[in-house]
Amino acid sequence: MIRAGIIGATGYAGNEIVRLLSGHREVRIGWLVSRSFEGQNYADIYRNFFDIIDMDCLGNEIDELLDRVDVVFTATPQGFLSSMLKREMLDKAKFIDLSADYRIKDVNIYEEWYKIEHKSPELIEEAVYGLCEVNREDIKKARLVANPGCFTTCSILTAYPLIKEQLIDPDTLIINALSGVSGAGRGAKVANLFCEVNESAKAYGVATHRHTPEIEEQLSYAFNGKVTVNFTPHLIPMNRGILVTETASLKDGADEGSIRSAYEKYFGKEAFIRLMKEDLSPETRFVEGSNYTDIGFKVDRRTNRVIMMGALDNLVKGAAGQAVQNMNIMFGFDEAEGLRAVPMVP
Amino acid sequence: MIRAGIIGATGYAGNEIVRLLSGHREVRIGWLVSRSFEGQNYADIYRNFFDIIDMDCLGNEIDELLDRVDVVFTATPQGFLSSMLKREMLDKAKFIDLSADYRIKDVNIYEEWYKIEHKSPELIEEAVYGLCEVNREDIKKARLVANPGCFTTCSILTAYPLIKEQLIDPDTLIINALSGVSGAGRGAKVANLFCEVNESAKAYGVATHRHTPEIEEQLSYAFNGKVTVNFTPHLIPMNRGILVTETASLKDGADEGSIRSAYEKYFGKEAFIRLMKEDLSPETRFVEGSNYTDIGFKVDRRTNRVIMMGALDNLVKGAAGQAVQNMNIMFGFDEAEGLRAVPMVP
Amino acid sequence: MIRAGIIGATGYAGNEIVRLLSGHREVRIGWLVSRSFEGQNYADIYRNFFDIIDMDCLGNEIDELLDRVDVVFTATPQGFLSSMLKREMLDKAKFIDLSADYRIKDVNIYEEWYKIEHKSPELIEEAVYGLCEVNREDIKKARLVANPGCFTTCSILTAYPLIKEQLIDPDTLIINALSGVSGAGRGAKVANLFCEVNESAKAYGVATHRHTPEIEEQLSYAFNGKVTVNFTPHLIPMNRGILVTETASLKDGADEGSIRSAYEKYFGKEAFIRLMKEDLSPETRFVEGSNYTDIGFKVDRRTNRVIMMGALDNLVKGAAGQAVQNMNIMFGFDEAEGLRAVPMVP
Amino acid sequence: MIRAGIIGATGYAGNEIVRLLSGHREVRIGWLVSRSFEGQNYADIYRNFFDIIDMDCLGNEIDELLDRVDVVFTATPQGFLSSMLKREMLDKAKFIDLSADYRIKDVNIYEEWYKIEHKSPELIEEAVYGLCEVNREDIKKARLVANPGCFTTCSILTAYPLIKEQLIDPDTLIINALSGVSGAGRGAKVANLFCEVNESAKAYGVATHRHTPEIEEQLSYAFNGKVTVNFTPHLIPMNRGILVTETASLKDGADEGSIRSAYEKYFGKEAFIRLMKEDLSPETRFVEGSNYTDIGFKVDRRTNRVIMMGALDNLVKGAAGQAVQNMNIMFGFDEAEGLRAVPMVP
Known about the structure:
4 copies of one chain form a homotetramer. By secondary structure, the first copy, chain A, is α/β, with parallel strands linked by helices. The first copy, chain A, contains 11 helices and 13 strands. Chain A has 2 domains: 162 residues, Rossmann fold (3-Layer(aba) Sandwich); 164 residues, Dihydrodipicolinate Reductase, domain 2. In chain A, strands 8-9-7-10-13-12-11 form a 7-stranded mixed sheet. A 6-stranded parallel sheet of chain A has the order 2-1-3-4-6-5.
């Protein structure tokens, strides 16, 4: 049994970590930190936890808090952890960071896309990109995991085998993505009010969304060469879910068979990736509340392109679930522990 | 380890039973019956179960199926089980019926409200009304449990202690209820299409809803006298959730203190009933996906009335969850086994 | 052709006034005032008006602005107009106030429920309560109209004929109401974020909602005696719409026939009230975008009560539409001018 | 004043035609035909029309009905009009067909994609493709207009100027589209139930959607050469709205300036196309209920592509509104008559 601390516990991702850890047999929650709600009872903020968790939110006295836990989840804004983390803190507890602070190896790219000065670039090298199905071996040994973004996890996993096996031309890769509103966080912004979002759809961050360089970096590793993509996210009126639709030109010889084989090769045995049967498209409702990524594809012979589709729950596999999965890998637990919930329909 | 069979497995309640049993340590699913989808793989219909459950839906050869299970859940239309069930079948397996067939002791009332002839009235007496928090001792010994309806569970639990303790005048009890759309089932009806339901609200079954006599019968037991109520349900655009708002005149001497004491007396130690703190109203989102019923109240001194409010997930505590809770009681399992999921927010 | 000014033009009600006046043949918009967006182009805030309205939002220099218009709509917070309005301003332009400042004749009740000191109580007497179907003759002569609230309009109209004709016992009147989220305004509050409201329902302001004394005052006029009610509003996940369900005990002799006659007597010739056919319940979708109030009822012989139901669009008949209707009456225009839009389904 | 008949009046598009014509000064509705609801009062089916329209739905005795109207709208399934229409009927009334029957000039392509035998191929030549902003001159003289599909109108208009002006390489054009659920019609299908659609997103018709050849044909005319595209539609949980996001590689020399000029050249004076300001993305809520198409774009210098975005209301500009606009052009009315409604927000 280990103990976990959560910084940023009152955001949607933080709340989801608490929910998942509540059902985890190997972990106990040591403390919850929330700057906005310091001193308040956690169940007064998230009444789903009423009669379940009786803990007050603490402030940011991290140094003393560190001694009381084995692992820290930071579900905090960009720049928070990087301005606080020091190498010696990693000797005390392992860190799983849900922000983008340590996801991008080239600090210049991070600073350019996020418009933030990185305060601890010396720790970037040590950080492991926590895309479990791709970097499992490195994650096992990691002290600092950069948990991937929701769009990113879905976008990368959906294209990874085809890029890796050279079945598609990465120069033609176009990624369109749909996101539920919880991805925008719990901040009090007019743009995220019910009446501003409900019954509407829009693209946003067009050609400038911060998840773009993260997707490109990881796909470049897979391709073993530079990959540049168009990534266009859209906001749609639902609470949870990411759906990506990716289009790319097939390389010579690529066909249904080789594509399916590639997916099977990399993901056939993965507990949390489900490869759809022929001609089926993933739907976000079928992964809601679970750690699954559902992936399907369709070859279009008329245009010699493949349409790849992936779906996940942005708060689970796209955030808290993958963070717990990373923790399981880092501590040698069963990788599915705490993550076995069946998707909830409807 | 026992085995369970589910008849009507492809409705929303049936699917929820399958979901809950998938996480239950003491039960294995023996078979799934669905007349509409006989022969089809269950995970092709409910793709949330893809890679999780690999079973084909069977038809209605109940007699031979009975030998293979210890308990049968029937999530079937009114009149199905009552036209099929025979006493000797109860020797083979216990039955938990999610329809209304055995909920009402007076068969004439059943036939009047449901416009169906009851085909096995001789079994009504044996059936136990499966409102766990009220009838636990009888449920322990039951072979046939009539699992309460969603509106009913919420309506009764919310008023029960105040009726039982004579704190309100039952003749003044007005029950208004809101329901998510999953309560209307999965039949292909125009009235339940997205565009007919979304962005709208309506009352329905006004003065004629079939859950009325069920509520009245149970509250009459509590009151030890005849209770007649106005029950007005409304359909609102959300997937899951029941919210009831009940208003009644206070009897002499009833006040905040005596009301809270009454709730504490009957439900203070219940695992699945949460009594809200002062002045807080339950919200359906805080019980979603869980087996909880959240109850709050407010005394209005201007009118000498109390407003009682209850919230539950119609597919869990209002259907499948209570059915599993009944099973746990009937078989001597921990009553919360398989039902410990924290409500999922958002 | 007259000119109108709108103060508070960037709230949802203000935006709806602008929308309705854009299609009105007798009115031109003179100016738009918004403290929050002063200096910004209106169509940059509400892009539905892009290429339609090209006006910048002004600040609060009301004195000079008054000379340029014949009527002023104030869609502003409680206390705004009452702290600014002076009697001589009413000589320059007529005022239609969408706040509660002049709705309640007894200033003590206003101050008690709104927790605000009223700064111009001397003007309350002159103000006419702008419930068009009830106070039409007084509105014709008014210089200052207190436009009723959304819950209030629906609650009063639905019960008015039965109270007036002494068909129900007002002491037994219970009002439950459902509201879409636009009624909560456009302020940046966590409670109104999409993910906080979507897929949930809750009661709020239980026994304390500020629309209560307004309903009671108007129904007391109708009853010619003091009426005290329980009013319980609920928030449900849709943009627009109010649905009220009211329950009351029938007086001796009241039946379907006398009830229908009463509704016909008061509303049978009203352009914006539609009396549902027998056994039909109003649905908010059937009034969306329009100025209609749909009213239906059902007598329950078992309980000797009547269930009355009313539906309207909170931003139209519940706010901007009724304000325009009041303007039409005040200026002698066709009462339906600018308000003839057919409800939009779906 | 002319008279219009509507066949298929009880579908969502038919209902929208009735709504728009109700506010049109030059048209009176002559009759409403609905096979499913023959003999029923229209306002009993669509209660938004209660107290507004008092007409019974007729059956299909078209020959006699034709004499009573000047124009017929057919909002009917594929294959209906083509199996009924004869050339002499066009002498009696003009036809505006909202189905795909006469949209595609090559009958083989129609039959291949729609899996229907075309029963009146001899009339295809005469039909004018009713994309008003592109084919206005031909529409003026037309007797038979093939009203474009919702996805199609949005997809074509969004790309048209850039294709026409050779600013993008049509071989690289990828079209992703999002649709509200009303596009799926009012048929009683499980797939369109509230609980199947709400809180979910999915792609459908991947590489096979029937609007593909229609888009390709029209863009080929613009390009003056064969255009083949990937068109991937998605279903998202809202009532109304189409949002397309199109990506294409820029040709040499194309930049922000030349792209904006191209849009201005073709659409700058169009009443129903609004070109967004720099860096703004269209949102479906800002066109809801109106006949507008909002178009925006963003050049991505990193990838040398342009992302084009278009939004419209699928039931208005994507169906009924464009049909009325076509009628206005055909009969010489003001093109905007009956279509001036401001988009309704929220």
